[in-house]
């Protein structure tokens, strides 16, 4: 119940594959489920062994929906016949209609102490206090694990949760997730998905107001929301064709984004609420990635094989590189004052100083190691990478690309990734105020 040691105990290879209902037989240490494709009831031991077919193809088992147990009988609801029925839990014999309904019956439960058998509670201590500061989850063999609610992180003592504003944001086509940096299988914030998201391409954040911003190329909008899942709103809804680049200027409270169509190929700016929109750089081709360094007043972007820089008012436009083979994942390392990116055609990770000097390819990321890179992010001494070819998220050392580590598998193609790091924006914001004075 702590979510650990997850595994599949039964995979349907026959005529089934639509398990509508699932219940536990505590007396026999078995699970029982009902399948609406094969119109059957099945039973197996907790580990999936000892599979038996209890009943199939009965007139009162023609479109089953929910199932439960009591004593030696199994109970279920059926949509096609509008019935609540029961039968012997081993043989399926003695099918009996318990109740007929006027409409399709949904769930059912047996209210009886045997359906909630008593057991020792590893989450209870002698003094009556929980061993965890927030959530105590029962694990296997009378053990427990402590867990935290959204926007909190479990500390090194494995018992105490503390509030934290540091997590990995990543975007997929119809979803934005915020996950624990050290354990990307753990959702750190509530996920954003349809109807608020249709085809998201890029995500950024504003730590001052605890908001995230994203661009949706299908609806041609830029939206924002608080990281607790509330306050979803559209801030820009015009002149947004192919807005693949988006960046929040947390110092001057502006929002930048790229866009291009037949007539306009440019980088745009507005206030964070979408007001006072303007184009700061025009005459581009297909601008894609976009990142900012507000302290230096610089913006960087990719366009085809090119990487360019300009002042954030659009002046002093300079092309740094022209041969970077479809660079993506453009990221600023504010600690080392360097620029990082992935060349998507060969999977190498490169970096340079913010003025374009000192270009180098990380030795630990040879061509082919990233089969189809799609995103890159930076924090501390590590890089986070995403690979569409292997559906993986992982890390490596930002110094040389070594210490390669996969953190999450089976993650459908990602479009963008960002480390939400409250201290980075607040610290650099204070620096900028000091410099301006």
TrEMBL record:
InterPro entries assigned to the protein according to its UniProt record, in alphabetical order: 6-blade_b-propeller_TolB-like, Cueball_EGF_LRP_Nidogen, LDLR_classB_rpt
Repeat positions for LDL-receptor class B: 210-252, 297-336
GO cellular component: plasma membrane
GO molecular function (one): Wnt receptor activity
UniProt KW Signal keyword: yes
Keyword terms, alphabetized: Disulfide bond, EGF-like domain, Glycoprotein, Repeat, Signal
Keyword Kinase found: no
TM annotation in the entry: none
GO terms for biological process, alphabetical: canonical Wnt signaling pathway; vesicle-mediated transport
Pfam families: Ldl_recept_b
Listed name of the protein: EGF-like domain-containing protein
Protein source organism: Oncorhynchus mykiss (Rainbow trout)
């Amino acid at each position: 119940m702590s979510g650990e040691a997850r595994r599949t105990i039964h995979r349907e290879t026959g005529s089934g594959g639509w398990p509508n209902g699932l219940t536990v037989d505590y007396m026999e240490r078995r699970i029982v489920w009902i399948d609406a494709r094969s119109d059957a009831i099945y039973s197996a031991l907790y580990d999936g062994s000892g599979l038996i077919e209890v009943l199939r193809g009965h007139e009162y088992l023609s479109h089953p929906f929910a199932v439960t147990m009591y004593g030696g009988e199994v109970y279920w609801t059926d949509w096609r016949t509008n019935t609540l029925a029961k039968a012997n839990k081993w043989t399926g014999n003695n099918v009996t209609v318990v109740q007929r309904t006027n409409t399709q019956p949904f769930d059912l439960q047996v209210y009886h102490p045997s359906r909630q058998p008593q057991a020792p509670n590893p989450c209870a201590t002698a003094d009556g206090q929980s061993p965890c500061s927030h959530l105590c989850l029962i694990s296997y063999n009378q053990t427990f694990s402590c867990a935290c609610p959204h926007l909190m992180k479990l500390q090194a003592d494995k018992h105490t949760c503390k509030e934290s504003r540091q997590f990995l944001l990543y975007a997929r086509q119809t979803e934005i997730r915020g996950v624990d940096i050290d354990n990307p299988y753990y959702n750190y914030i509530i996920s954003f998905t349809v109807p608020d998201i249709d085809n998201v391409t890029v995500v950024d954040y504003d730590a001052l107001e605890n908001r995230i911003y994203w661009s949706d190329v299908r609806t041609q909008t830029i939206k924002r929301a608080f990281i607790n899942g509330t306050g979803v709103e559209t801030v820009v809804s015009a002149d947004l064709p192919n807005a693949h680049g988006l960046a929040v200027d947390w110092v001057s409270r502006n929002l930048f984004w790229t866009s291009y169509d037949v007539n306009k190929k440019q980088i745009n700016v507005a206030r964070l609420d979408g007001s006072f929109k303007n184009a700061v750089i025009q005459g581009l081709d297909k601008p894609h990635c976009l990142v900012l360094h507000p302290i230096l007043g610089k913006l960087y972007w990719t366009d085809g094989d090119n990487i360019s820089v300009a002042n954030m008012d659009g002046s002093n436009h300079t092309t740094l590189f022209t041969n970077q083979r479809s660079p993506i994942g453009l990221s600023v390392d504010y600690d080392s004052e360097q620029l990082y990116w992935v060349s998507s055609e060969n999977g190498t990770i490169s970096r340079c100083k913010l003025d374009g000097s000192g270009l180098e390819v990380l030795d630990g990321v040879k061509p082919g190691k990233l089969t189809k890179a799609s995103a890159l992010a930076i924090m501390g001494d590590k890089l986070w990478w995403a690979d569409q070819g292997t559906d993986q998220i992982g890390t490596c050392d930002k110094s040389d690309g070594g210490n390669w580590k996969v953190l999450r598998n089976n993650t459908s193609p990602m479009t963008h990734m960002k480390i939400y790091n409250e201290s980075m924006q607040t610290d650099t914001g204070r620096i900028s105020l000091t410099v301006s004075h």
